[in-house]
């Protein structure tokens, strides 16, 4: 399957499905059924088993025809984390049930991983899943859950055997967010809005058919999700000046009164770092497309967090008096991170999360040091202790 | 444009690395720094003529290998990794100048590795439009050509050159290196020697006229900046991997010092920087190979980014090795000296940032 053949397939599809007249959802479903959704997925699951590197060919062709997209930001967790995990660890029936409405955006997904007592030490999680009849009953509390208030489904990890050491007694589930035992409460952030939530699970029923992978294998299954999360944050091809740096560079260009000689070199340092980060993400994308292991994903995410924080900090100081003002602290429920439309103060505050979400920069540095460079692991006093005996 | 390495490039890398491992281990490089022959001419002949690295960027119809600057950059990485004492950078810059002015005869000799040409400009010459004039032309009445009088300081690789290219008032000239006075300089970097060069009425052949000097100099300088970035990547990779191996084996307080999180995080950060340098250097090499319109940006970006990364890697290498790296008998100083000299060569990072600002429309 090459680019020419793919382009021809898309054009043939568009001849039979006119995006101008068709219902949006019907169009997206038909695109999925034609294998033109995520082309690297298997046939019958929205793909053609084609190389991932050719996905832009398809996306560009649809965009050029004015076709509706699946609002990827709103379903980012489904696309970036749930889907690869379901594909890799799900049964045929689970894949058939979940992947199509996930891709079309009919069903939004969220991720129930972190807990108040299990952040960087995610494997210490305490949410319990107890076997009951033909299913499981789940009790516990999750936190930092983006999109929980919109989601139909959640990927969930819970403890099924507290007598085992922490990594071993975990099982991976798909949780129905409409279950009466699920309570979602917004968590207001330093920006004023509430992107994420805390989620209380009280006697939530999950059928055994909604388990992903074997009982006790949840930590291993979760690795698929976490690897994909780190690629999703800060990855992907963007044009030059496509990120924060473009906003600041344009402010600099259009507002000569703000400039000072000292700040010019500071700005150029950031510009160089931004371009280096962009090219690194581009190279990572190429590596992933050819199926090479992408440890560079950790480098991209690590550098992206630091860079965004530096640029947004610079932007506030460049603006001087204006930097003292903020646009809106009203409590809102956004579905994405609208950094382009918001004020510099918002960018400064929101970027602080970049080095915390999806693995802190400190944990990433440990991962790089241990898995890439092969340095000795951190001392783990809790590794072989049954979870129930851990101090907390 | 791909930022990955091709199979052919990896094969070339393997061949160059095997040669350098065999002929230029650091112990030999260190020993040579205190000898009368700071450049390894025999090694250079093997590398340039037998492996054919001198011919890489030259088209086949001009006697070249018909490869590209992308492969030439891979060679630069390996030479940086070995701090090899060969005049590769100077020769490559001269080759780029010859390609720009289309002097086919000399180009054939240079790409065959028969003769080594080096551009006689100070190594520290930074980004900018005007070529650095270093000589005046005398007595242009002779039938067999002109003579040059002048001087230029801190020329890298001049000691290993057969031919020197000199920028004079009205053109670019070739002079026999043996006819010039080359005074060796005690360089900070002992593995890439500098020389002060002077010409007292030496016979010179005009390679290019006034109009062609600017473009030839720009082509040479850009090729140099791009290859230097790959060299800096190679230096940084050696420093990182050598330091990582050391902290795994060096024990203090009853454990490998590489198990301390303070060191692990420093090395992880360095790995991130080196990973970025690889993408940036590959992009610059790709732009040079393809004649991409973004080449000017890519070259200065590469110098603004890769220079400081190599210096940081070398400085971390010294610090994390501790006292042993302060000794003459340990290779770290060879890399520190090369990295710091490279950060000044062809313009400092700050100069490149200023150039970039102009190129991407960020006014002062």
Automatic annotation (TrEMBL), chain A:
Residues 110-194 form the Acyl-CoA oxidase/dehydrogenase middle domain. InterPro entries: Acyl-CoA_Oxase/DH_mid-dom, Acyl-CoA_Oxase/DH_mid-dom_sf, AcylCo_DH-like_C, AcylCo_DH/oxidase_C, AcylCoA_DH/ox_N, AcylCoA_DH/ox_N_sf, AcylCoA_DH/oxidase_NM_dom_sf, Mycobact_Acyl-CoA_DH. SUPFAM superfamilies: Acyl-CoA dehydrogenase C-terminal domain-like (SSF47203), Acyl-CoA dehydrogenase NM domain-like (SSF56645). Its cofactor is FAD. The keyword RNA-binding does not apply. Gene3D superfamilies: Acyl-CoA dehydrogenase/oxidase, N-terminal domain, Butyryl-CoA Dehydrogenase, subunit A, domain 2, Butyryl-CoA Dehydrogenase, subunit A, domain 3. Pfam families: Acyl-CoA_dh_1 (PF00441), Acyl-CoA_dh_M (PF02770), Acyl-CoA_dh_N (PF02771). It comes from the Bacteria. Residues 216-373 form the Acyl-CoA dehydrogenase/oxidase C-terminal domain. Keywords: FAD, Flavoprotein, Oxidoreductase. Coiled coil: none annotated. Residues 4-106 form the Acyl-CoA dehydrogenase/oxidase N-terminal domain. Belongs to the acyl-CoA dehydrogenase family. This is Acyl-CoA dehydrogenase.
From TrEMBL, chain B:
Transmembrane segments: none annotated. This is Acyl-CoA/acyl-ACP dehydrogenase. Belongs to the acyl-CoA dehydrogenase family. Keywords: FAD, Flavoprotein, Oxidoreductase. CDD domains: ACAD. It comes from Planosporangium thailandense. Pfam families: Acyl-CoA_dh_1, Acyl-CoA_dh_N. Gene3D superfamilies: Acyl-CoA dehydrogenase/oxidase, N-terminal domain, Butyryl-CoA Dehydrogenase, subunit A, domain 3. Residues 225-357 form the Acyl-CoA dehydrogenase/oxidase C-terminal domain. Its cofactor is FAD. Residues 7-100 form the Acyl-CoA dehydrogenase/oxidase N-terminal domain. It comes from the Bacteria.
């Amino acid at each position: 399957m090459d680019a020419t053949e793919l382009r021809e397939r898309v054009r043939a599809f568009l001849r039979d499905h006119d995006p101008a007249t068709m219902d949006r959802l019907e169009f997206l479903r038909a695109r999925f059924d034609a294998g033109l959704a995520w082309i690297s997925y298997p046939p019958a699951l929205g793909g053609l088993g084609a190389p991932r590197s050719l996905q832009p060919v398809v996306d560009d062709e649809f965009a050029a025809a004015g076709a509706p997209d699946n609002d990827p930001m709103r379903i980012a967790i489904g696309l970036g984390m749930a889907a690869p995990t379901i594909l890799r660890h799900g049964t045929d029936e689970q894949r058939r049930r979940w992947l199509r409405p996930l891709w079309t955006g009919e069903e939004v997904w969220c991720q129930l991983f972190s807990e108040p007592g299990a952040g960087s030490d995610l494997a210490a999680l305490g949410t319990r899943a107890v076997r009951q009849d033909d299913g499981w009953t789940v009790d516990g509390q999750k936190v930092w859950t983006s999109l929980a208030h919109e989601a139909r489904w959640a990927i969930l990890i819970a403890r099924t055997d507290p007598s085992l050491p922490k990594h071993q007694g975990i099982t991976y589930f798909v949780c129905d967010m409409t279950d009466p035992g699920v309570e979602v409460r917004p968590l207001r952030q330093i920006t004023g809005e509430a992107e994420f939530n805390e989620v209380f699970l009280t006697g939530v029923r999950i059928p055994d058919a909604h388990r992903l992978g074997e009982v006790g294998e949840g930590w291993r299954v979760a690795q698929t999700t976490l690897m994909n999360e780190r690629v999703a944050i800060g990855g992907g091809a963007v044009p030059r000046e496509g990120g924060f740096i473009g906003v600041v560079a344009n402010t600099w260009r259009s507002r000569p009164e703000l400039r000072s000689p000292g700040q010019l070199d500071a700005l150029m340092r950031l510009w160089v770092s931004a371009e280096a980060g962009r090219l690194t993400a581009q190279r990572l994308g190429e590596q992933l497309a050819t199926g090479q292991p992408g440890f560079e994903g950790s480098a991209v995410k690590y550098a992206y967090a630091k860079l965004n924080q530096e640029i947004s900090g610079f932007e506030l100081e460049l603006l001087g008096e204006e930097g003292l003002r903020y646009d809106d602290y009203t409590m809102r429920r956004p579905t994405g991170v609208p950094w382009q439309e918001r004020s510099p103060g918002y960018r400064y505050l929101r970027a602080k999360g970049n080095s915390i979400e999806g693995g802190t920069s400190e944990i990433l540095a440990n991962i790089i040091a241990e898995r890439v460079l092969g340095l000795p692991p951190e001392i783990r006093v809790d590794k072989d202790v049954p979870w129930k005996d851990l101090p907390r | 444009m791909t930022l990955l390495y091709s199979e052919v490039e990896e094969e070339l890398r393997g061949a160059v690395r095997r040669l350098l491992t065999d002929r230029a281990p650091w112990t030999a490089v260190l020993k040579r720094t205190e000898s009368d022959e700071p450049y390894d001419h025999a090694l250079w002949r093997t590398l340039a003529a037998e492996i054919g690295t001198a011919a890489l960027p030259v088209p086949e119809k001009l006697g070249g290998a018909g490869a590209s600057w992308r492969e030439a950059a891979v060679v630069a990485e390996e030479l940086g990794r070995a701090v090899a004492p060969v005049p590769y950078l100077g020769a490559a810059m001269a080759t780029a100048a010859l390609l720009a002015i289309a002097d086919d005869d000399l180009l054939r000799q240079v790409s065959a590795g028969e003769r080594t040409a080096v551009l006689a400009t100070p190594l520290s010459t930074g980004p900018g439009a005007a070529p650095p004039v270093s000589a005046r032309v005398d007595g242009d009445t002779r039938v067999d050509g002109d003579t040059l009088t002048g001087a230029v300081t801190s020329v890298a690789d001049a000691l290993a050159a057969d031919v020197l290219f000199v920028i004079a008032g009205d053109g670019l000239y070739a002079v026999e290196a043996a006819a010039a006075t080359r005074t060796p300089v005690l360089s900070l970097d002992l593995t890439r020697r500098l020389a002060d060069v002077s010409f007292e009425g030496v016979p010179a052949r005009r390679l290019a006229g006034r109009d062609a000097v600017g473009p030839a100099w720009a082509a040479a300088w850009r090729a140099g900046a791009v290859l230097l970035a790959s060299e800096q990547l190679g230096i940084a990779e050696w420093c990182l991997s050598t330091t990582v191996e050391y902290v795994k084996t060096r024990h203090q307080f009853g454990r490998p010092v590489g198990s301390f999180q303070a060191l692990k995080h420093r090395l992880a950060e360095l790995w991130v920087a080196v990973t970025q340098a690889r993408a940036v250097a590959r992009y610059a090499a790709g732009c040079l190979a393809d004649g991409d319109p973004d080449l000017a940006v890519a070259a200065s970006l590469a110098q603004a980014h890769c220079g400081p990364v190599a210096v940081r890697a070398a400085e971390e290498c010294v610090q994390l090795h501790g006292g042993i790296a302060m000794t003459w008998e340990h290779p770290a100083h060879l890399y520190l000296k090369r990295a710091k000299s490279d950060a000044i060569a062809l313009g400092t990072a700050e100069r490149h940032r200023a150039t970039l600002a102009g190129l991407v429309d960020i006014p002062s």
